[in-house]
Specification:
Blueprint: E1 3-7, E2 10-12, E3 18-25, E4 34-39, E5 46-51, E6 58-60, E7 68-73, E8 78-83, E9 92-99, E10 108-111, E11 115-119
Parallel strand pairs: 2-11
Antiparallel strand pairs: 1-3, 3-8, 4-5, 4-9, 5-6, 7-8, 9-10, 9-11
């Protein structure tokens, strides 16, 4: 059974950093890419990053590329998203999703339940 479980969210002060985790089961990270998305209140879901299954290549949206980092630990079946210099605009539910392909193709077939990140002083 394919599952993705996000964790690491919470209430964080502006300027701090946060590491989100996406623990996967039912498949391996050398077979599927993993993407991170976020959805702020009243807004559409936004893709932020992806890590490929082939060689761990990473991709970022222009809006986050200077502050976000994605990497994977294949042995632990976990993908991480590091968010640096958090801003109130980063407040959202963060989701990870399984890519249908090895490389970051933009298509995803399984999703986690999300983890809430709230940035506030």
């Amino acid at each position: 059974q394919v599952q993705l479980l996000e964790s690491g969210g919470g209430l964080v002060r502006p300027g701090r950093s946060l590491r989100l985790s996406c623990a996967v089961s039912g498949f391996t990270l050398d077979r599927h890419s993993i993407g991170w998305f976020r959805q702020a209140p009243g807004q559409e879901r936004e893709w932020v990053s992806c890590v490929s299954a082939t060689d761990g290549s990473t991709w970022y949206s222009d809006s986050v590329k200077d502050r976000f980092s994605i990497w994977r630990d294949v042995a632990k079946n976990t993908v991480y998203l590091w968010i640096n210099s958090l801003e109130p605009e980063d407040t959202a539910v963060y989701f990870c999703a399984r890519g249908e392909l090895l490389y970051c193709s933009g298509t995803y077939d399984y999703w986690g339940q999300g983890t809430q990140v709230t940035v506030s002083s």
